[in-house]
Amino acid sequence: MIKKLCLTVFSCALMFQSLNAQENFKLMFYNVLNFPLGNAVPNRLQYLELVLDDYRPDIFMVCELNNLNGANTILSSLQFINSDYQSATFELNTSDDTGSNQNDLQQLLYYDSSKFILESQNAVTTIFRDFNHYRLKLNSINQGSNPVILDVIVCHLKASQGVDNQNLRLQMVNDLTAYLNSFPANSNVVLAGDFNVYTSSEPAFQEIIDTANNNTIKFIDPANRIGSWHNNSNYIDVMTQSTRTQTGLGGSTGGFDDRFDFIMTSSIMSSNPELSYVDGTYDVYGNNENPTCYNQEINSSDCSGTDFSFNIRDALYNFSDHLPVTLELQTNQSLSVSDNLVEDTISIVGTNVVDETLKLKIKGSLQQQISLSIFNSLGQAVKTINVDNTLIQIDASQLAAGIYYITSSKFQFEPLKFIVAH
Q: Is it true that the peptide bond before 145 is cis, omega within 30 degrees of 0?
């Protein structure tokens, strides 16, 4: 009777954990500075690879991508990190201003195909450059009966100061607004891009956040840092350009003094349990929020701090004149998983009878994407392990002698059993 009760409690504990599981998704937008045609810095792909391997975004959005070769090169780099990465179809801009050819600067989206399904893509033509719209569906267990859709818009607005350029940015955003007005009001929409705005009072930005309340989709700034960003050191925490003061590397050389790059979310995503942004996760990757970094180069000692090392900041300096922007989303839905055997995902190395140390082998593509929980025979969670390598060691020296089970809320497999025998 006691044994049956213990097994029942354990099963209920696993079920409760699964029902209350939260899945987070990491988003990154990056202006990749005329890639791959911009070659002022030799072999600069290596610097992008360091950044991608460190952050490992589930959705990676880019602008200033030149051509299909560049698109495929970035995809290959991502797939070296995780074979589940895929990209949308590379498309040339159909927009063009009459003064110069914009078709060397494209946008694109990459995504983890184990977590998202690309349903469709479309280009929104404007007076200057297209907006690219990618419709993703969450790869959830209930996607047939309750599909969770994320509409991702990636853009690159007209650059430079002056009333004429401000008007061009506004015309571009007006075209996007007209397109989005056909969407359901409760749509989950992410708008990411290089906006090239100098202050939130610019008409284009006012249209994005819809201060007039005329639009079906109203965007909010998850960083909650609305203001006059240009040459204003009070906004150092959200500044994204320029990483450089040295000439000859391509891009801007003005030093760190502007907020041009954004990830915005539709207002529904502040409270939608099926897909919402996680408070406090909006970040400028590589920005240590050091006040002395104002107008300096991002790899200088003036920009040092605890969040981003010199190696990361130096890679960002060498790759682009912009810093990436990151954000996390969260869902209450359980992801669909393959029917792979547990040995294909996680396994015990050696014996499952241990005294001090249990060794586990983790599938490479799952590294840094899962956490593990250890339950005792009563169904009580006794330890949580964040996976950060393909081979991990678990300290069992403090566990009481007995039988334990390892499981994960993200992968449905028969719990791994091990025995602690001191």
A: no
